[in-house]
């Protein structure tokens, strides 16, 4: 059996904490990353009691790449779970440019820094796994999620292409399109400092923000079960056993949550529905063949 050593970013709460815990319970070693590891260790003693360790990591810092490179090398890490991130909910018009940039910096560039730090070590191992946490917004749009969707759809594109770049080196890349799970995400989402413009009051943006705020604490997804599935995807056990060899170009995208799977199915059906109608338009733009 392969020995798996995890580095989990954003591990002080929510899905990250659950992944770290389930990986330790499954017998793997874990380095849990948090912005304030002292507080995280105090609030979640189970990580250290199960044999894990905490490190300080803020993925928005420019030294993240070097920090991750050192951590993965010194701890023999062969699984990177890129979970760190947050949500900004508000219309594009109400979102300041620096707020939009901050959303992209954390959710996309932070992930990029971690991956770049881990890759040299992963390549030297001849095999490793990178798990990038995406979102249901990759499958279906939500008003008020413009900045968040931009960050997560960019993560999708990064993940798909990265899999092709590093797959030949034996590095598996997996994208988790996460549905709405019962974590603190909806309690802690940020809103634009400008507030909501009158033009959006009572409309789709307002309705979505109110709906998500009201859903906090009542989300359908169980994060402990999502974490268990993620660990199984890595080590090829449980419900994910038959997917163990399908990470490189075969089963890159994994929806988690019944809502995410429903959106996944609906997206496939909607694309298929218009495919034949678009064929004549799409193929009409090539140079004429002699």
Automatic annotation (TrEMBL):
The keyword Signal does not apply. GO terms for molecular function: oxidoreductase activity. It comes from the Eukaryota. This is Uncharacterized protein. Belongs to the short-chain dehydrogenases/reductases (SDR) family. Keywords: NADP, Oxidoreductase. Pfam families: adh_short. PROSITE patterns: ADH_SHORT. It comes from Apodospora peruviana. Coiled coil: none annotated.
């Amino acid at each position: 059996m392969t020995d798996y050593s995890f580095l989990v970013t954003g591990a002080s709460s929510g899905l990250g904490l659950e992944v770290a815990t389930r990986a330790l319970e499954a017998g793997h070693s874990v380095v849990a990353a948090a912005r304030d590891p002292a507080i995280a260790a105090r609030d979640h003693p189970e990580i250290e009691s199960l044999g894990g360790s905490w490190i300080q990591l803020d993925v928005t810092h420019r030294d993240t790449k070097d920090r991750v490179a050192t951590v993965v090398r010194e701890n023999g890490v062969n699984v990177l779970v890129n979970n760190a991130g947050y949500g900004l909910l508000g219309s594009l018009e109400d979102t300041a440019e620096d707020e939009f940039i901050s959303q992209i910096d954390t959710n996309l560039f932070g992930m990029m820094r971690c991956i770049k730090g881990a890759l040299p070590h992963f390549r030297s191992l001849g095999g490793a796994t990178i798990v990038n946490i995406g979102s249901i917004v990759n499958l279906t749009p939500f008003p008020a999620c413009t900045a968040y969707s931009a960050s997560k759809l960019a993560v999708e594109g990064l993940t798909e292409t990265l899999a092709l770049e590093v797959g030949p080196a034996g590095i598996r890349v997996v994208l988790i399109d996460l549905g709405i799970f019962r974590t603190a995400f909806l309690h802690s989402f940020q809103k634009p400092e400008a507030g909501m413009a009158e033009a959006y009051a009572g409309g789709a943006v307002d309705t979505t923000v109110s709906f998500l705020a009201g859903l906090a604490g009542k989300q359908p997804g169980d994060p402990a079960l999502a974490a268990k599935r993620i660990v199984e995807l890595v080590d090829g056990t449980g419900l994910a056993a038959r997917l163990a060899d399908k990470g490189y170009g075969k089963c890159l995208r994994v929806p988690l949550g019944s809502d995410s799977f429903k959106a996944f199915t609906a997206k496939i059906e909607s694309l298929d529905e218009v495919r034949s109608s678009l064929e004549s338009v799409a193929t009409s733009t090539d140079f004429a063949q002699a």
